[in-house]
From TrEMBL:
Residues 12-283 form the ArsA/GET3 Anion-transporting ATPase-like domain. GO terms for molecular function: ATP binding; ATP hydrolysis activity. It holds the Pfam family ArsA_ATPase. This is ATPase. InterPro entries: ArsA/GET3_ATPase-like, ATPase_ArsA/GET3, P-loop_NTPase. It comes from the Bacteria. The lineage of its organism: Bacteria, Bacillati, Actinomycetota, Actinomycetes, Pseudonocardiales.
Amino acid sequence: MKVDELIDDASTKVIVCCGSGGVGKTTTAAALAVRAAERGRKTVVLTIDPARRLAQALGLPELGNQPRKVEVDGFEPAGELSAMMLDMRRTFDDMVHAHAGPEKAKEVLANPFYRTISSSFSGTQEYMAMEKLGQLAADGEWDLIIVDTPPSRSALDFLDAPQRLSTALDGRMIKLLAGPAKAGGWGLRKIVGAGFSLFAKAVSTIVGGQLLADASAFVQAFDSMFGGFRERSTRTYELLRSGGTAFLVVAAPEPDALREASYFVERLAGESMPLAGLVVNRTHPVLADLPGPKALAAAEALERRGDSPLAAAVLRLHADRVSVADREGRLVARFTRAHQGVPVTRVPAMPSDVHDLAGLRQIGEQLSAG
């Protein structure tokens, strides 16, 4: 996979890094963003990782829900880099402010039913990541947006979130809720009791006599906004399928991570979404042209003679490294046999966690070298 060609291509507007949790997805997205900015793109990276290590690596005290320009000593990109961290609740609140008048927005934000939905609704984090992507794309301020997606266990969580949430909250569902609420609540209880799972968690956290009053007030205040959910999610979905978007599936050289990556690849293909390739992080390439068995035999010979214990230890480490590299190679080969034509880029494991721009640059170079 030719990463530099991807980020240098002016027609590439969005790069989405997706995969399971714990595979270095956030760091990969940040490294791509740094490299793109230094190669002349005006770039913004959107992350969902609440840990402060990414902000520290970029030389920022913290990341907020709005893009913040990266301006630190030693970083003078030909382009520009901004970074932000998704705040799910703030993004939901901003959407209310954007699509409602001041008085109605105030009413919605104060509603207990809304506060529960905005923080507990199934799929909200995934939906809000896509909502924020849609906002960034609509602004037109950046010529490259790099998205670090939520660490979903299933590709369906991420790809289906906009459609699931918009379907649950579009005008027809609101009519179902509005009618029962105005009729005294029997219909609402019947809907929830019948197993309306998307609302079950939210509703279960609102107790007491205010449930129906809060729900009714929420519906009446928010009704005019729900119709836009489907439209916005449809626009974002089409953006994801457009030729200006590229998906990078990120994995580690482990069976579970590669199985998840395989599922992502199949899901993206099923949705006709543009896949740029697979990034396999934390690999262990062999650093010397010496077969593992020969290294082990040489180490044993030195130990028998009592000579050069340090050399024997190094030979044993090399033999172990060859074994690990062979295992990783078999796992990646299994993936490539199942998904022929998907480009693969390997990024060697770093000696320590990435904590500064130099580390992100190094990962960017490894991504480019492939």
